[in-house]
Amino acid sequence: MVSNFHLPPTGYGPGSQPSDEGAELEYMQLPQDMRAYTAHIPEVEFNPALTAAMEVMGQIARAADSAARGGANTRFDLSGLNAENRALVAETMGHGEVSIRMHGIPAVAAQESVFAGIWSLKGAGLDAIEVGPVPAQARSRAFEPLRNGQGAQAAKTPAVINAPPLLVELTDKSRAYTAEDEVHVINLSLLPHTEDDLAWLDMALGQGSVDILSRGYGNCRVTSTAMPHVWKVQFFNSMDTLILDTYEVTDMPEVAIAAPEDLADSAGRLREVLEAIR
């Protein structure tokens, strides 16, 4: 007797499926759009009245070249431009993926333009563009306490189990940090913890004065703590589900920084747009 193991399986092969003459084969719909850079050319007809805006943006392109070579940040005050020139600058810059809120007096909001490393700054009495890897005040204000950290004295519940050793590690790395150090990451997504652990760490570390949102295919939310060089970095997918929860010990998380290559590219692309306007 032949075992069923040796017989051809049923339900497969030619003739096993119903015939449907003339029917079209249907495929699963796949994503059609892909994010890519396309130059945005402001819809204006250049005239001599816009010379001031063109000159400022030319200076911005040169500053991006300098920043790409390691030069210091450069800020351009736009308050002296009239409404027509200011509108041309705003339309040319557009909105990029990174937004930064810097608490303090005065509070400052920074929005990266479509040119990486070129930032629009707004605040009380402030209307400017800053060119650099990240706005200078995002570094200088980062760890000014918006809410003081309570350290190891933060009140514990019985469910606070694994957070205290993490605080010890973060405190040690914070105190020993130098600019030459590599980023030290604690990946909470890979570590056992309770909700009370997370809440206790938040109380222990406090909150700094800088919030960063980087938008892409998902979101990355970065918040400075009140402990020097310690940042809360969280990645969310397109459904806004948390997929990576970390603390980073560094001067500034890399996700918020425009690389030298990005700045050099921004300088070239901005010049192309200015030529198109002319």
Descriptors for this entry?
2 domains; 278 residues; alpha+beta; Ribosomal Protein S8, Chain: A, domain 1; 10-stranded antiparallel sheet; single chain; 21% strand
Describe the structure in your own words:
The protein is of the alpha+beta class and 278 residues long. About 3% of the residues have low confidence. Helix 4 runs parallel beside helix 5. Helices cover 28% and strands 21% of the residues. Strand 2 and strand 3 form a beta hairpin. Strands 1-5-4-3-2-7-8-9-10-6 form a ten-stranded antiparallel beta sheet. It contains six helices and ten strands; from the N terminus they run αβαββββααβαββββα. The longest helix is centred in the N-terminal third of the chain and has 18 residues. It is elongated, with a radius of gyration of 26 Å. It folds into two domains: 106 residues, Ribosomal Protein S8, Chain: A, domain 1, CATH 3.30.1370; 106 residues, Ribosomal Protein S8, Chain: A, domain 1 (2-Layer Sandwich). The chain starts with 50 loop residues before the first helix and ends with a helix.
- Could you give the order of strands across the largest sheet? 1-5-4-3-2-7-8-9-10-6
| CATH-level-2 architecture of the largest domain | 2-Layer Sandwich
Stretches with pLDDT under 50, minimum 5 residues: 30-36
What is the distance, rounded to the nearest whole angstrom, between the alpha carbons of the first and last residues? Answer: 88 Å
Number of helices: 6
Instruction: Write down the overall mean pLDDT.
Output: 88
CATH class value of the largest domain: Alpha Beta
Helix residue percentage: 25-40%
